Every structure is written in C-alpha cells, then in structure tokens.
Amino acid sequence: MDFKFIHSADIHLDSPLLGLERYPGAPVEQVRGATRKAFHNLVQLALQEEVDFLLIAGDLYDGDWRDYNTGLYFVSQMARLREKDIRVFIVRGNHDAASQITRSLRLPDNVKDFSTSKPETIMLDHLGAAIHGRGFPTPAVTEDLSRSYPRPVKDYFNIGLLHTCATGREGHANYAPSDPGYLKNKGYDYWALGHVHNGETLSENPWIVFPGNPQGRHIREPGVKGCVLVQVQNGRVESFERRPLDVMRWDTCPVDAGGTETYDQILELTGQGIDQAISRNEGQFLALRLIIGGSCSAHHSLAGDRDRLLNDLRAITADRGQNRVWIEKVKLQTTPLAAAEDLPQDSPIAYLLQYAAELSGNEQFLAEVSSELQRELNNLPSELFKDNEAEAAGSQHLQELLPEAEALIASRLLQKEGESR
Known about the structure:
12 helices, six-stranded mixed β-sheet, single chain
C-alpha cells in the first residue's frame, strides 16, 4: 500500500522562554508565541499534503503548564485533523513525563498516546503499516527503550516511534540512549526519533531520523526548523523531504573587524553582515547575535562605550531589517592593535593586563569565583536562568567573560590616560 506521513518531534508547545524580559527591546510576545504558530503550520501542512498520519516523537509539551489552555489548544488542532481522517501517534518524552496535567488530559479519538509502561504496536491494516512505540514513564529515563520494542510485523512497513538521545548529542540530556547499529538491525523500515533538536539523518537504509524541532527557542537552536514529510510506495520510502515550519529564526553573525581603523568602518562591516544574515534566512523574522572580533584601532572606542555601539547597531538593523530583525546580543571580541607587551613594562595598564591574562588561566581562581557566584545565584529565582546560554557561574563562562572585562577596563584606562596628556 502507498501512504504519506509527517514525522515531527520536540514541539515544546507554548514554551515560556522565561527570562526574555531581561533583553531590552525583545519582541516578547512574538517569541513566546512562536512555538504555537509553528505547531499551527505543522497541522496546516498535514492538511495540505493530505497525509495519512502524523507522528510526534516526544516532548509535545514543555513540562507542567500553569493551566489547561495549552492542552485545549492542542485538542482543537487535533480536531481539525480528525475532520480529514488524519490520525496522530505520540510517545511521551522527558518533558511530557514531567507534566501533571498531561496525564489527565482527555485526547480526541484520532490521537494515540502510546503506553509508558511497555511498548505497543498499532496496526494500520488498510495502509500496510505497523507503528511501534513507548513513552517515558518518568522525566529521566536512562535505559535503552528500543531493546524492548517488538519484532517487525511481516509484510508491513514498520515504524519505530522513539524518544532517545541515540549515542548522545551535545546540549541534550543522555536520556534513553540507543545504539544506531541495533536500530538498523531491528528490521524496521523507519525509526522516527525525537529529543535532539537539530535535524539529522543517522541512516537511510533503514531510515533513522531526527526531524529537529519545529521552532528554535534560543540562540543555541539556530537555522531552519521544521519536520519531515515521507512518502511510502510499495513498502519503501519513495520520497523524504525536510519541510520548514518555523516563524522566526536564530542566527549568529560573525564580523571580522581586523585591520579597520575607524568606528564607522566597523559599523559598515557589521551592516553588511546583517544583510547577509537577512538574505540567508529568506526574510524570516530573525533573532541575531553579532560577534565582532579582530585586532583593530577602534577597539577602545568599541569597548569603552558599549551602549553607543548597541544603539547604533540597533539603528542599522531597524533600517536594513525593516523591523524583521532583533539583535539578541552583541559579543565584542576585538583586541587593541597595541597589546600589553607593547606598553612600557612599568606601565600600570601593562601590569593590569598581564595580571588579567594570568587569572584567565588560573583554574583555582576560576573555581573560587565560580563558587562565590553560585552562592549568590542560589538567592535568585531559578527561572532567570532557564534556557540561558551557559551555566552563569561556570568556569567556562567566566573564562569567556574575563577577556571582555579586561578589554572594558583597559579601554577606559587608556581613554583616561589620553585625556590627561
């Protein structure tokens, strides 16, 4: 039999994106509504393509909700699919397992939520397809769930619906690890995986696929996000397409300011980088991180007045992006043309820069500062740091911050020194 299906995962419907208010000028409502809009696009694609069923490989939700609105919205979208006889198959992931309301939500009859206690198999006889799946019973599952999946059904197109980290991926908890070699030899025709937010195809014979999430939620989830559309003919995958669903994108724009002499030249280079980012993201609303680096004469002007730099870049972005680009952050990584070793050895600034360089490589110092910061952070609400880019008190984060602090202090001192001459 021939049929068509969509494979999606990690929707994180209505993900709150806590802490976004800390970014001045952030389009809070647009960013917060992005996961719901992307989910709407997913349902719309299923209707337009007239698929036979939709697979959701875990993390439909984002942990506990404050109320039922998220669940009711999901039910309303499933009803749209039911009107067109489109079935939906879901396994729960670690975030779904953390939700209390999820367990009591009544689902429409076209939605199958697989058992969390043992694998189940749903036979779609009219399509010649068998779907095998099991959800997470608890938020932290460390066993290989795939080992308990049943043998393939003979003469059927077998699909394994599984939430897993596979062999492990950076930035993702090591939940339900599975061996791709074992998955290949299981005898299934398609493994519909979830948990990893970057789209990735581990194998094409058989197909073992992470579709990625439909909508990036922060700077560590850049690029095009969406789902996979699969056409099966005569018991084999005839076509495999990644389809975009996202309504906003996160991107990083590196700017090499090396050799520039003036502040205005750096602004022009950055503007060109912004133009390129807009072009490669095809006009989507863009959350952009600018990273300006290189050794340049204007380093001290940049580091000494970051508010001016940020506001000038926002003005450039507003002009070129036509309100379709938001600067998520500006990371200044430039260095002065005159390094510390070029200053007089008895110069206080040279001593300061040398001392700062020594501290950045002192593991004991970083550990002590990290410990002090952790004690302070424990007094702050944890939601301030949800989805933040690095452990705020971690040694690695401190190593990244020290050069920025060094540059800022040096630029201010050099400016003062110049004023006194």
